[in-house]
Amino acid sequence: MRIPNTFGFDVKAALYAEYDSVEELEKMIAEGRITSPFLHMGCGSNLLFVKDYDGIVLHSRIGGMEVTAEDDEQVCVRVGAGVIWDDFVAYCVERGWYGAENLSLIPGETGASAVQNIGAYGVEVKDLILSVETVNIRGEKRIYQKDECEYAYRKSLFKKPEMKSVFVTYVNFILGKKECYTLDYGTIRQELAKHPAVNLATLRQVIIDIRNSKLPDPKVLGNAGSFFMNPIVPRALFERLLHQYPSMPHYEVDADRVKIPAGWMIDQCGWKGKALGPAAVHDKQALVLVNLGGATGKDVVALSDAVRASVKEKFGVEIWPEVNFIE
Ligand code: EPU
Predict the structure, then answer these.
(1) CA-CA distances (angstroms) from residue 281 to 13, 201, 224, 287, 291?
(2) Is 247 a known active-site residue?
(3) Of 2, 57, 144, 302, whose CB has the highest number of CB atoms within 10 Å?
(4) CATH number of 222-326
């Protein structure tokens, strides 16, 4: 069965199985239908299948967005893992709830958002998460509170190999009801100034417009968003690079470390818009690798290796894929 993936690779699993509720998942487990090897995935917007998967691919279709608590200041919402992430963002914006709007239009589903700690424009999903509900391969339920989830830049407890058999079923979020925006990233303020008013709907629109201007639509050009993580480097190395490249963009992390945009480094290496066979570096955002048509996972891995080698040679910095490789 073909595995859905936003790179548009033609990859197959021995079995692709979906479930609509926790009860259905528990039943599949109890009946011994989930045999090894298995892979639990969202809609494949952050995965790179290097070859066909010789096992069971599982996908949650648990839906529903339900208010579980609220007062004048905040609201708690329980969201099914299979809910499309941007549908949840739109739901919050329509109701006047603050917090998710900067994460507009990120592809993928809510369960995966909590695994990947998705982030954009100065916000990470961990900023909104209260807890993550799970079921493991033995059918045991457990709720992880946010502070147990080991969230960091594009990282979480759930990404660790030993958590492969823990499936996210629901995510509990907390949103604000009082006006509060995150506007300091990149050109947000500048773009917002073109709108007559600052409100949740205009901010969502600005984010959508910025994303659409840089990031390719996977339905048109296969891709998985940012292919690499932005490397966090020791301050001494950053100082050396800044001396050499005074206009190098960067973000402060802490006293000892600074984050450098991998997209900028790849661009400086001359890769933007360049192809290696049927895989290419996107011409509007060098952090994104695209399938020009007919590429396989191996083609994209070859391009990724070549790009990483260039960055290492020119800047002395290792960059690592953000996309998860499925071998
Ligand atoms: N830049 C270039 N050339 C490029 C790309 C970027 O010079 O080809 C420069 C930009 O001019 C800017 C800096 O690099 O000064 C950063 O670029 P941008 O703001 O586009 O963000 P990014 O660091 O490339 C990250 C996230 C994106 C997220 C944006 C906005 C990661 C791995 N990526 O990209 O997330 O949308 O910030 O917050 O952290 C994703 O994870 O799939 C994703 C798209």
Answers:
(1) 28, 32, 12, 7, 9
(2) no
(3) 57
(4) 3.90.78.10
**Boundaries of every domain in the chain:** 65-176, 222-326
| Cβ–ligand 1 contact at 229 (below 6 Å) | yes
- Residue pair 257/264 in contact (Cβ under 8 Å)? The answer is no
Q: For residue 321, what are the contacts with CB-CB under 8 A and spacing of at least 6?
A: 48, 227, 228, 229, 304
Q: Which two tokens stand for residue 22?
A: 């926790």
Q: How far apart are CA 82 and CA 170, in angstroms?
A: 9
Separation between Cα atoms, residue 223 and residue 226, nearest integer Å: 8
Helix (H) or strand (E) holding 119: strand 119-120
> What's the alpha-carbon Rg for the chain, to the nearest Å?
20
Interaxial angle between packed helices 200-214 and 85-95, expressed in degrees from 0 to 180 and rounded to the nearest 10: 150
Point out which residues pair with 67 in neighbouring strands.
Answer: 77
Considering only CA atoms, which of 49, 77, 47 is closest in space to residue 65? 77
| pLDDT tens digits for range 167-189 | 999 999 999 999 999 999 989 99
Q: What is the pTM of this model?
A: 0.96
- In the CATH scheme, what is the code of domain 65-176? 3.30.465.10
Minimal-distance CA residue to ligand 1 atom 1: 264
What pLDDT digit, counting tens, does each position of 5-63 carry? 999 999 999 999 999 999 999 999 999 999 999 999 999 999 999 999 999 999 999 99
Q: Please state the separation of Cα 246 from the chain's center in Å.
A: 30
